[in-house]
Design a protein that fits this description.
alpha+beta, elongated
Length: about 375
């Protein structure tokens, strides 16, 4: 058996074995490609507020939290998200089961909870990442992604024509509308694979890092950085501020998680360290003695990063900062890890990158379809 034939059969068998999983991830990927814009449009009435007065002053954090607790008398606050944008609403979270509510930061008016569109996108992402089946599902999607990476690389080898001439190149790089049956599927499979190759390589390579701790470790080592001790917990995508919290906290007695003095001290620490902050996400302790954790998103342009975040931990008992991890002082490995999700989704290049990611996901759907069709004809059909 020649090397080319061996790679071909490995490619075919792999595609047949995990094609279904790849199809599900590609289909959900097309839905998630423009998730930020879709959710923002669906929630435009609660994510944005009208600043009536030019010099309007937002309420204090304690006042916003107090309004939120009044609106959710059976809930326990787990966090609050604030943005520097004067038209942005404040988001207060009540744990994984309690959900989140949006408030007008100037009046304390309750604007509403997260939309059904947001919930749907969260469900789709759960299917995309782990088939909605927690750890076992994540193992399946991780394996399918790894096999898809092998198929992309082996597909490059198979794609190379035996004879480098114009007719041969046209047959595998340009669509031919005159073909049908097996010849059409072969043409589509080669052409789509050729044009989608760069983004599919990016998607599968970043997906590998997001799926496996060893791939994370390898990324850090390649950047000359020491992998963090919590590397296994970094196997999932880097997301924005979580709107959930500790499970089972939704029915605790209503209470404010911290005093105005605590808020002022935390605010001073944040402002002194990151005066150009874009958003601040405070996560309140769910266990006695645990610190308040603050995730601070900074300017993308300043740090040339799709999501530069610094983190701070504040001890309520001592009133001191116990940990400060500025993005600017992070290792190259940590900064590279931040890029992984946004390269995976295309968001690193804005809406143009998202469009490319969407097209490549659609291309992956057709690669699965044409691959199955070609396999079916090879084994079961006598006709083209």
């Amino acid at each position: 058996m020649t090397a080319r034939r061996f790679v071909f059969w490995a490619h075919l068998i792999s595609g047949t074995a995990v094609g279904g999983g790849i199809f599900i991830m590609a289909l959900t990927g097309t839905i998630l490609a423009f998730e930020p814009q879709i959710v923002e449009f669906a929630e435009k009435k609660i994510q944005k507020v009208a600043v009536i007065e030019a010099f309007a002053v937002p309420m204090s954090v304690a006042e916003i939290l107090s309004k939120a607790v009044e609106a959710m008398p059976g809930g326990r606050v787990s966090g609050i998200l604030l943005k520097s944008d004067p038209e942005a609403s404040a988001v207060v979270s009540f744990g994984r089961e309690g959900g989140s509510i949006y408030l007008n930061p100037y009046t304390g008016e309750i604007l509403g909870a997260g939309s059904k569109t947001h919930d749907f996108m969260h469900w789709v992402e759960d299917i995309h990442r782990k088939l909605g089946a927690k750890d076992k599902g994540k193992a399946v999607t991780g394996f399918c992604n790894a096999v898809f990476l092998f198929m992309v690389i082996s597909g490059i080898y198979i794609w190379f024509p035996r004879n480098w001439n114009l007719p041969s190149l046209k047959a595998i790089t340009l669509f031919n509308g005159k073909l049908s049956g097996k010849q059409r599927d072969w043409n589509w499979h080669n052409v789509i694979g050729f044009w989608c190759l760069p983004m599919l390589l990016v998607t599968t390579l970043t997906g590998l890092v997001m799926s496996y701790g060893w791939a994370n470790t390898l990324l850090f080592r390649m950047m000359g950085s020491e992998p963090p001790a919590s590397i296994q917990r970094m196997a999932g995508p880097e997301g924005g501020p979580r709107q959930g919290g500790e499970k089972g906290q939704a029915h605790q007695p209503a209470e404010l998680p911290l005093t105005q003095e605590d808020v002022d001290l935390i605010g001073f620490e944040v402002e002194s360290r990151t005066p150009d902050w874009v958003s601040i996400n405070l996560r309140f302790p769910q266990k006695p003695g645990a610190p308040v954790t603050v995730s601070i998103q900074e300017s993308k342009e300043k740090h040339n990063s799709p999501n530069p975040r610094s983190s701070l931990s504040y001890d309520l008992e001592s009133g001191e900062v116990t940990k400060w991890e500025p993005y600017a002082e992070g290792s190259l490995g940590k900064k590279a890890r931040v890029w992984v999700k946004y390269l995976h989704t295309g968001q690193a290049w804005g809406w143009i990158g998202q469009l490319i990611a969407f097209i490549s996901a659609v291309g992956a759907l057709f690669l699965v379809y044409t691959g199955f069709a070609l396999s079916w004809r090879r084994f079961f059909s006598k006709n083209n």
